[in-house]
């Protein structure tokens, strides 16, 4: 009877470790599903004789995208769009995380700022574009500010929630051990709020991409949004789909990069 216990312990360990192995084994499901979707799209358009004006085949979209990158300088427009996205996003991250930590740890500051956040948060930020253009002009600065305004609130709100969920016992213990206010925020509060902050950053980056492309379609002469408007105005459906595919690829790359950064910071947080 006693010899069965080690075997039972090994089996229990294998079962608890199984979910990790299953997650690793399923990594290719997404790419395979995407390939099957594109093949079904190609076959459906080919067999149903849908006009290319309404729904081009994926193979044609890839050829069009390659042509736009090689001959029509699409990468320059992509670089302009990415600059506007990340400039606004990083500005929003700096303001949102800093203000969120301060509001989460100070009841007075929270009481002062909460009413302004509640008033401004529901306003569609694209509706502020005319005012921003009047104040800042129609250049890059106006688009960067619009992106920052749109993406700062998810970061700010999630940071406040993460800070307020920090265990007060840990804060009191650090204070009893002689930690300063800055050390408590840096070594106790911030690590505890990291998961919530990263959730806000993920939402904010998506909002920033949407806002910049939408604003470029209305305002700018350069960028992916401006190219989309130009292609749509002359019924170049293949070019429209090509730029949408390019934006989708950018979204996938940024999402996976965020996941990797999240894992790295998670290991730092655990230490």
Brief overview:
The protein has 271 residues and is mainly α.
Share of helix among residues? over 70%
CATH fold node name of the largest domain: MetI-like fold
- What does the radius of gyration come to? 24 Å
CATH superfamily of the largest domain: MetI-like
Beta strand %: under 5%
Q: Count the beta strands.
A: 0
Mean pLDDT across all residues, rounded? 85
Number of helices: 11
**From the coordinates shown, what is the CATH architecture of the largest domain?**
Orthogonal Bundle
Shape: globular
The run of helices and strands is: HHHHHHHHHHH
Structural class comes to mainly alpha
Count of discrete structural domains: 2
Keywords:
disordered N terminus, globular, 271 residues, MetI-like fold, mainly alpha, single chain, 2 domains, 84% helix
If you had to describe this structure to a student in words, what would you say it looks like?
The chain folds into 2 domains: 1-37; 56-270, MetI-like fold (Orthogonal Bundle), CATH 1.10.3720. The chain is 84% helix and 0% strand. The chain is an all-alpha fold. The model is unreliable at 1-22 (pLDDT under 50). The protein starts with a helix and ends with a helix. It has helices at 4-25, 29-48, 58-71, 74-105, 107-120, 129-136, 140-164, 168-176, 181-219, 224-233, 237-270. The protein is globular and about 75 Å long.
